[in-house]
Amino acid sequence: MTTLPARDLKLYRFESPKSAHVHELPLAHKGAWKALERHFRDQGRRFDLHQLFAGHGQRGEIFTAEGAGVYLDYSKNLVNAETMILLVQLARECALPQRIEAMFSGEKINNTEHRSVLHTALRMPPNSRLEVDGEDLMPQVQEVRRHMGEFAEQVRTGAWLGHTGKPIRHVVNIGIGGSDLGPMMAYEALRHYSQREIHFHFLSDVDGAAFAETVRELPADETLFIVCSKTFTTLETITNACTARDWLIAQLGEEGAVARHFAAVTTNIEQAQKFGIDPANMFGFWDWVGGRYSMTSAIGLSTMIAIGAAQFEEMLSGFHAMDEHFRKTPLENNLPALLGLLTVWYTNFFGARTQAVLPYSQYLKRMPSYLQQLTMESNGKHTTVDGDTVAYQTSPVYWGDNGINGQHSFYQLLHQGTQIVPCDFIGFCKPLEQIGNQHDLLMANLFAQSEALAFGKSAAEVRLENTPEELVPHRVFEGNRPSNTILIDRLTPHSLGALVALYEHSVFTQGVIWNVDSFDQWGVELGKALAKQTASQLADSSLPLRHDSSTNALIRRYRGCRSE
Ligand code: F6P
């Protein structure tokens, strides 16, 4: 565990602001920010991991933190104890502890939409209470969970019969963004624990090919569609849901079949009813759950059908364990806070533009896509909560892939490219499938990559290998490339929950420092509105085109080409 010297802590103690809502000073005027700028100028930009490790024999054990079953080694970062003290101080000056409390207690911290942010309530244990505006939210949360459990169990046991009396063997989740990425990531991650007699499909793209390929082999009378949409107005989802309904009716020959083959998860019960879904198969949630934070709401229905209600509860308990860790652990040892602050350090001081996430687990192959929405839809903002334009960079581009596959494609750039790309390595000590020594081989690669990135290989070392002189510069690894290693005992529903919550709260931490609303997503609206207008112009070629000359020409070309 990190123990920062008390003497140093005192040196950097600044007052925390009282208000949980606003930054009292712009970020760049804060004492800790200015101290970080000086620290970066005087030391940080020249940090050398060789020296940092040489100067502190226990660094690999000290620059670590642990909680909720997750071990974080952040020693291979370009930081020293002073950096960490200053980053933590910055968090205090930005009122992170107060903001955490404000979120957990239901204050309307999503200020542009005037909403509470309470995805953490979804994972609270049964029998807990959470009063917001005089109302205990937990009975509704528990009731939806109970309903989900009942429905999931019926589908899993084959008691839920389709229109022709057959049990369900295929579940198609229709949704996009947070109504797709969470369930899909969780299904892939927890496949080991899933009911193998039922097959899961995820339909998000409005490209007709996605629908056609999804249903090609599906027996309609054994298929359940779960339409997931917080708003129930998302064009892609509603279009796919309508196509699925038409397909089902055509296959089974009766409109009445819809009731046994469609369920809906939404906050917009009225629209779902209009669509024709039986209210008994509807699962609600609330506007205080953001789409990208919704995998523990009823949006997780497909996950629950896959792994069962008991294991779903375990996943929730993993989320909750990390929630509690985030809420109660001092920032110095608080995993999400540390992870978020390190991202701020690289983004705002080293000028890093991207952050790689590299799971060494086949089961986590969808984790990077999931994290892309979580991180970038949350913090890809240029306006502060007060409506001012930020004077600093906000979210980096998150990207990544299964680490082993990445090694044979993009790691070249990580090792020898010209930009700094902080990496998160994620691995598990125990495999879910023990096949020979394959897991050791997998993990050896993870450890080797973080070591190679950090310490590289000097020209002298390359020469010692009798390398021809002209190849020496090509074979040198500068090293000094930062990474975190997240090590977990085993991939289970519980540990997946803790891991996802770790990133959720890291995103929250970043948003608090950058003073942005991490829970709205106005940036997706313009494209949606233009697409609607353009869709009518594609449907009716007589409609005039009033776009820019490029868009007009492209549409004319498309119209011409389509009608050939
Ligand atoms: O367009 C972005 C977005 O609003 C996401 O925030 C959301 O997860 C996704 O679309 C899907 O929205 P819905 O669940 O309302 O269909």
From TrEMBL:
InterPro entries per record: G6P_Isomerase (IPR001672), G6P_Isomerase_C (IPR023096), Phosphoglucose_isomerase_CS (IPR018189), SIS_dom_sf (IPR046348), SIS_PGI_1 (IPR035476), SIS_PGI_2 (IPR035482)
CDD domains: SIS_PGI_1 (cd05015), SIS_PGI_2 (cd05016)
Localization, UniProt: Cytoplasm
Gene3D superfamilies for this protein: 1.10.1390.10, Glucose-6-phosphate isomerase like protein, domain 1
GO terms, molecular function: glucose-6-phosphate isomerase activity
SUPFAM superfamilies: SIS domain
Catalytic activity reported: alpha-D-glucose 6-phosphate = beta-D-fructose 6-phosphate
Residues annotated as the enzyme's active site: 377 (proton donor), 408, 528
E.C. number(s) listed in UniProt: 5.3.1.9
Major subcellular site: cytoplasm
Keywords: Cytoplasm, Gluconeogenesis, Glycolysis, Isomerase
Family statement drawn from the similarity comment of this UniProt entry: Belongs to the GPI family.
Stored PANTHER family: GLUCOSE-6-PHOSPHATE ISOMERASE (PTHR11469)
Biological function: Catalyzes the reversible isomerization of glucose-6-phosphate to fructose-6-phosphate.
Protein name (record): Glucose-6-phosphate isomerase
Lineage: Bacteria, Pseudomonadati, Pseudomonadota, Betaproteobacteria, Burkholderiales
